[in-house]
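Notes on consecutive records. When two proteins share a document, each keeps its own sequence and its own token line. Never mix them. Below: protein one.
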Amino acid sequence: MGSISAASGTTVLSSSLRRHSNRRLGLYDRRHENLSVVSSSQPPLMPRQRWLYVPETRLKQEILRMDFIAGAADSTSSSPSVASGDKTLIPDDEFTLAKISFGVIGLGLGVSLLSYGFGAYFNILPGSEWSAIMLTYGFPLAIIGMALKYAELKPVPCLSYSDAVKLRESCATPILTQVRNDVTRYRYGDEQHLEEALKRIFQYGLGGGIPRRSAPILTMIREEVLTDGRYCLVLVFEAKGLQLSDFEKRQAKFTSFFGPNITAEVGKGESENIYEVRLISNVSTNSVSSTS
């Protein structure tokens, strides 16, 4: 009986070991089966098993990366449409004497001669024999420089688009060219740019006119091309004491003063107290080629 019990105990022990072994083998098989499924490239099981191990931060990074690529593609695809319109600004960096302030030059040169002349006169600086000449010429130069600086009228900024620059030589009238050259250089003795034109158009102090203190001030000009292909010079004014109606009822006067071959249009600017007068040239490239 003991042997039988021992055998039976042994049988029981072996069967329990077999069960534990089967369980371990089953887990081992399932674990390896899972690994084989993860490492395999089958489409149906891959997302279900693999995305369980993808961190949330990595998923967000992938989404942000895809959004960035899509935004970059949109920006590059939209850039040719801007370039096709030729609406790129060309800086007005051409060097001319008209863009130099003679007041600054005269004042700087005069003050330099006076400073060195006094230093040489009191033997602080060398060249005492030239001190009298430097003082003689330095004093009037400084006075002239201060006078020019006081009466100086600075040029207004000019925004020129590339398509308008191409049409400037062929479509801009001589008066429009003169206006652009006059307001983009230093002037001396004038209270404001286009003073004579504004005085005749708005009739300062006369019947039906405006007070001189309410005169519009030219702040900038802009060269552009309209949708119909015509060259246009835009005058941007600041007028705190005027309304849009004050410009509209003088639209014909703008046309007649800056003519011929000019059509003036008046409009409101982007901000308050800003008004725009568009001087549109009626000269086209076809008419220029036919006359030539």
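Protein two starts on the next line and is unrelated to protein one.
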Amino acid sequence: MPLTAKIQETFDKGGGIFRLAPVFVPRRFAQAGKRLRLHPDDYYALGTKRGSIKERWFSSVISAMNGPLAPADEGMSYVAANIDGTDKFLLRDAIASLGAAVIGQELYDQYGTWPMYSKFFDFETPLFHHLHLNDAAAGLVGRIGKPEAYYFPPQLNNHPGLFPVTYFGYDPDVTMDQVKERLLQFESGDNRITELSRAYRIELGTGWYTPPGVVHAPGSYLTYEPQWNSDVNSVHENIVSSEVYPYEFLTENCPEESKLDIDYILSLMDWEKNVDPHYKKHYFRPPIKCEHSDEQHIEKWITYGNEYFGAKELTILPGQTVLVKDPVAYGTILIQGHGTFGVHDAEAASMLRFGQMSGDEFFVSEATAKDGVTITNRSHWEPMVFLKHFGPNYPQMP
């Protein structure tokens, strides 16, 4: 069967909902938190040279920037065309084929594809203090900027890791010259740059928004991370948990002629946001309960207040059937419970083998989202809990 026909058939049989295969991504640095519900034997499924698996990506039409050993489709979501996922095609190809029928006319006209993705990142140790480039800086190396957001789901955080605290920016009294001095020490010794920052203990069930250009060192809870279609950064911290990071981590997304230019590297920061004295007031994101919540279901905004993406947590209470409507397309991951999601069986993963199909991830087309997805919780005891990620066009996002 031609690919276009297979895509259309799968779309029609799914009632405008694609079931997606799990996408696990290794990273060469840091230690795995082992909360991804992946079998303990499979964290090095791609070999020790690739590093352990520390992320799971959702609704992704882009590949991970993961070094020369990574395959071209690493990080990209596949749609299952049969029950066990042995017959599949890229979500990117499905959107290219069906266009506005999947993501809606507004997103298709503006971006030509789905413009965001989400992930779980799962580290036992804290991440390095780093920033993501804005569009102007990323454009110099042929990429786009990267805003991102965080939410800390209780269902996936049975332990906090070694350092459940996140640093954001620099203390308001810190000067650019102080940061410059620490970056100039990148290859001479531990620059201990988080001494200039400020830290917040992570609160489960809450989140943050992080604009491009803000330096941050995420703590060691598993994090749900909606973000723009990009993977560009500059790492300010050279030693974390006794692991040494090379100079390339600081400059890998700089033009060749700027890799030794400390003033250019410093210019990647949005300095005013980094030293904002009211950083938490502006970027902390406690959940906001939606007015349509009732005795059958509860929906909360968990990512909001930015121009790029949004996310909700949807809880269907035990034994309930609910028609859930949204005005735009979205991706979703089920993190607790079992039942049905439209015409699909749905169940949260408890332990997956690498390469195994699951019934916990879906992509909902705009027309189906508007008509509503009927969700039934088949448990007498446990709720069904979904995390839902949206593009920039949700009209009622706070």
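For the record: The radius of gyration is 21 Å.
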